[in-house]
């Protein structure tokens, strides 16, 4: 990713999709604005129907976020109907967006949408327990993505019913090959994040992989790491007190930011150097 | 033409998704649709051909009955519109509505593959897979399938036979017939009764008199409309009517009376809140609204959805939660839902007794386990799909909830105080505004819901009373209103379509301007053939009614259309002082507003003292380990229990911790998204051992440091002894739970939900008066105003047992108190579990011999007669001291002592921290027995742990209140409790296992 020439922007513009049951757009916007407070970054929540009306709008943005939620209530399969809508109306604009030096992130339902759009490999199916699950997990960073630069381990919450990552063995091999596809082909993916046994799992005695994901995969990236999809919710770990460990080690420091704000900061830093 | 698309998961699949596409599409188009409905990584599809699967013996198809909301079907329809660029949005979502090339409807079903079973077994399995009230099943053998290669291609359309749209009802009949009309409903043209109006003779006579004066008969829609508006559910007659010498009724005298007095004491000024009076909009709107900070109000409302949940637990619960969300969206000009709360009272899941609604034993009531699973799932789907954190809740079990469960669902909202100089908590429909219905369409769902919940459940309970929620339709509606239209000032008033549907929402809003006229044929329907009265009172979900100025209609309509929300003008608000309804140009209803709202005759209610359960009376004995006499059931051979060796208490404590009324329910908390909106501060599960917290904290405005604290409390079993104490303890516990987590007593409001039984029985009314008086005393005592409330007065089941003998099962009168508080600094929040080795453990408050109605006695088969009592003055000193200690950051952990007493509090704090403790009960006092010290549920007590460096500062704060220094937190996990000798010795790993046993058994 260092090879590419970066746009020397002062302020990247962030577009956060909404509508049809997506529901994490407000806190995702808050996270981007908090992370970009110094640079006075502002993020726009845009309803998919408004984007369909003015598709060219997408070209004005540098960061695209599909936030979490329950688009179409997961009916016919999580992320499927929203992705179909996006594909049927905005495929050309999406391709154009990704051909520029832009960043995109899909969180939870957003990740499910991205796999259904075909811009990230694999698919998400029902949790192995069969039920929706809200808990914290520990993640290990395995991919090279500007979103994750400087992060090795991180703890964040998940909340999903269909978070079991499924990938064909052949494709997995390609993705996990050293120095493999991430740097090469434009649409090839890479494992970005895996579930691991860390602070939270040890504290609450929880299994590392909460949903039965293949190879413990929690997130993947593609397009040289510029496109990241992950099941866990980094926007729900932007304050220290959100961690289950906070009460045990409570300190008075209010300015202390949660671990995952870094992800949003990375995105903004990518454009400002 | 109909096609069927099968979507089969790859690998070993035991189910198949099926989509029946009712529309003429070309082969290529059907292929494209199938591709869009299939994720190629996960699934395969086949068209009009049953997929090749592994061997199975029977396939069971479960689909919805005609007319039942099919959310996945709707999504598939929208996907198809997108695919072929048929203009998206609204207008053709449901069957019968034209698309550019005809009509389209998609019906989904799930096909389960059953291995190695015969037909009979398959039929049994089918029964466990569906609820015949709303779903249909179709069983087909593998052989037959191989022959036909495809399942049937018939769409489950609603076909309503043609009926006379409006009939006139003669009320010139004998009183007997008036009673019958009131109880069983209007006779339709075939002579069948339409279902209960729940109007008593006095009300029927008032209506008779009204129409006699007008010299005409009422139409069916007029009678149905009056029945809805006058229902117990809408008018709360039991709380409104004079009772004994309480002339203004219970609500006005004690509930609203308490709030008015508290506001006066806090220095309320005319025209709004003063510095200390934080109430802004109470009792007048869909939710209660209080000050959050200078920019926002916070609202709260808790509802019940008991009767529907008994019939269809999933549908009842999901419509319960999604319905109460609309009480938030319908507060003022629209508040944004920011937290959901829930509370479930079930029969014991292991109870397998069968009960029937009818004497012929054809209508089987669902068993408690099925109700529990369905209700839990209903809140799951309703809350999770809506993107509202489901934070706070509880489960309670009692045999008497087995036929009619209680399902509480509540929602907290946030709303800016002012936008463009206009206060958002006020609203007023103006004469000349359009009446606009927004959201879902109208079908037969929920006909007679309001009147149905006002009577006991029996064989006449209408099946159409059941509804299924569609949270996504509502989410779209909610976002479009609260996040856009509200701040653009596009409407003057808004309210929810809940009980009574349009008949209630339009009539309510018409009060704001004078009157309304409605053209019912304009209301969009799910399917053709509804009669006008059905359209008027239908409780189809996900609808709001708005008052939109004509000048803003175009803008409003465009906005709604672009958000995929259907909005329709159905009439106009007027100042004509009457509610007029027309159907296809013909006037079918014309009722003066005054009669509609004030015509209901007053009844004077009388009470008699409740029968004493306490024979023979048990007087508190001090000094020994005495137990009260046996009241019902229970252990035999009491003599041996007076002198009990230590290990018995260890067993007792462990058993009690495993009691479903006490143990954890992480399997529920963790399947509810409680972190969406990124607002969670104190979660429903806390600490290394993931114990359930009694209060939860969240941050509704992410750039404000203020936190909102929520809790709820109910002690139904205390009511067996004293309804007064039951209510007092519920309030005390709710207040205490809030303070224990870091909330603020001076900024704390409460809500009441009375769920009663047989409320025409003077004894039950006697209990009610007792409970309501306690509400007044405690609310005024703590200065915590009621801001909203609701009641459900007839939670009785009348049916038959397995042998056809009649049975009556009434719930124990249950008062749920919910509380909401604002804390200035959320970083001061304290969680309940032990934190650090060496921390000093204190019990704040006084322990008394108050075992009656408690979990310990109940577990031994007793009721007792000495419930905990509340000493508001004394407890308040304790709470203020704790509030101060928490504000000064002196406390490591703080846990409100509730059901199961101190013993359980210690066990929970230990399990939560996965740390042990060394405790001595001696400091509590010498006079009581060990069982009292361990298990008495005396109110006003908090278990606190304090780092040793803070001890002197802490003890300075608590020096004027009762407290006992019990011991310290220890590492290694040993839990040891001493009295004169060692009475409990166990370890935290064992306790953890017991505490989570119920959850581990129900997780999958």
UniProtKB/TrEMBL annotation, chain A:
Keywords: ATP-binding, Cytoplasm, Glutamine amidotransferase, Hydrolase, Ligase, Nucleotide-binding, Purine biosynthesis. GO terms for biological process: 'de novo' IMP biosynthetic process. Pfam families: GATase_5. This is Phosphoribosylformylglycinamidine synthase 1. One of its GO terms (cellular component) is cytoplasm. It comes from the Bacteria. InterPro entries: Class_I_gatase-like (IPR029062), PRibForGlyAmidine_synth_PurQ (IPR010075). It comes from Candidatus Nomurabacteria bacterium GW2011_GWF2_43_24. Coiled coil: none annotated. One of its GO terms (molecular function) is phosphoribosylformylglycinamidine synthase activity.
From TrEMBL, chain B:
Residues 194-236 form the Phosphoribosylformylglycinamidine synthase linker domain. GO terms for cellular component: cytoplasm. Its EC number is 6.3.5.3. ATP binds at residues 301, 752, 789. It catalyses: N(2)-formyl-N(1)-(5-phospho-beta-D-ribosyl)glycinamide + L-glutamine + ATP + H2O = 2-formamido-N(1)-(5-O-phospho-beta-D-ribosyl)acetamidine + L-glutamate + ADP + phosphate + H(+). It is found in: Cytoplasm. One of its GO terms (biological process) is 'de novo' IMP biosynthetic process. One of its GO terms (molecular function) is phosphoribosylformylglycinamidine synthase activity. Residues 289-415, 694-792 form the PurM-like N-terminal domain. It is an enzyme of class 6 (ligase). Mg(2+) 2 binds at residues 327, 496. Pfam families: AIRS, AIRS_C, FGAR-AT_linker. Mg(2+) 1 binds at residue 303. CDD domains: PurL_repeat1, PurL_repeat2. Residues 430-583, 836-979 form the PurM-like C-terminal domain. Belongs to the FGAMS family. Monomer. Part of the FGAM synthase complex composed of 1 PurL, 1 PurQ and 2 PurS subunits. This is Phosphoribosylformylglycinamidine synthase subunit PurL. The gene is purL.
